[in-house]
Design goal:
This protein is α/β, with parallel strands linked by helices. It has 21 helices and nine strands. 42% of the residues are buried.
Length: 436
Amino acid sequence: MASKYIVRQPIKDVSGKILGYEILYHGENQAFSADNSSAGDFASADTVYSFLTQNSTKALKGSLNFMTFTTALLMRKTPRLFDRSELVIQIDDSVIIHPLSMRFVEQFAKEGYKIAVNEFEFAPRYLTLMDDIDYIKINVEAIAPASMRNTIEIAHSMNKKCIVTNIEDEACYQQAVNMGADALEGTYVAERVTTAVHNSAYLQSSFFQLMVAVTKDEPDVEEIERLISMDASLTFGLLKMANSAYFALRHRATTIHQAIMTLGMGQLKQWIYLLSASNMDNTDISGTEEFLKLSFIRANFCSELMKHAKDMPISRSEAYLMGMFSTLNYLVDAPLEEILEEVPVADEIKAALTRKEGRCGKLYQLVLSYETANWNAITAYAEELGIPNQVITNIYFTCMEDVNFLWDQLNHTSPNQEPEPDNPGAAEQKSAGDAE
């Protein structure tokens, strides 16, 4: 059976902030839109249209989505599955040279949809579109440096944003930045982190909710567990404290639930109050949220993939911690090897996160490969782990939907406001990477 995946790849501005996500499709052993034959185009359109019909109101909401539309998808008026404020319609040569397609593009532009052109060049067939174009995308591998600079300068003079794609290493990244690119995309960009936060920072909105939760007359342990499990720094700090010499336990706490039970509500409250005081001067969390959300997504993805993975040496709760701790070296000022020595995670997790070894390493590599749209690696790791490749996309987007739901819930709760009651379906699953 051919592998079919739909992946989001981040597009970041030069400060490292995410501008949006490109929706990449891979199916029938071909990348989306690579097959320009009529049969190939319509076969791809069937799969993509079916997926978007089910998911466009879920995980793809709330972000700017760049998606390449073929003639078949345009003729189906697929862009209208998206809110115009959340979609950039990408087109390439196969659409530009098709008269009927261009009529649809012009109509969507009039309706307020933003338009991007893949591998743009200043050729006559492109120039007729300039009034409708918002973004031009330049393939760093397909253009000479001098031509790239000229293209970016001319585009800026026409008030167009420039996104340089296929950034695979630091040299290409710096070249694009120095030439004035507005945003960048590629494997290197997806993996690159601009600055380490290095202050043990935590997401303020979740921390405020945690403060409310621990001060209730009858604290809800499940709610407290859920809030802590959404934040890598809080999870790390809790496990570190629960396993400190002060508590001197015969059995070490290896899950969030065990750590809460070890401390007890009195000690947990004191710990939260101390964190509150230590965070008074830490008002700048501009770089923190990206790491915390990434760790939360990875934690959920690892945990859900464990339902299908074969012969794994760790539990789902441990897989959750593996994903959660994968960004800790950006949140705590120390190498990851040293950080992991301070908490009782399984040796298999340490080997996976620091050296990408063992079956846990393959699970971690699968998650990283999915983030960077490495199609061949996704298929290879899934096969090695015994995970059916046809379930991976649905698992990922279900995790995205649940994470986005909880994230929105946090961001819409003010420090002095009681949290809204949890959505039972979303809450049940998510923090509880502790379900075995």
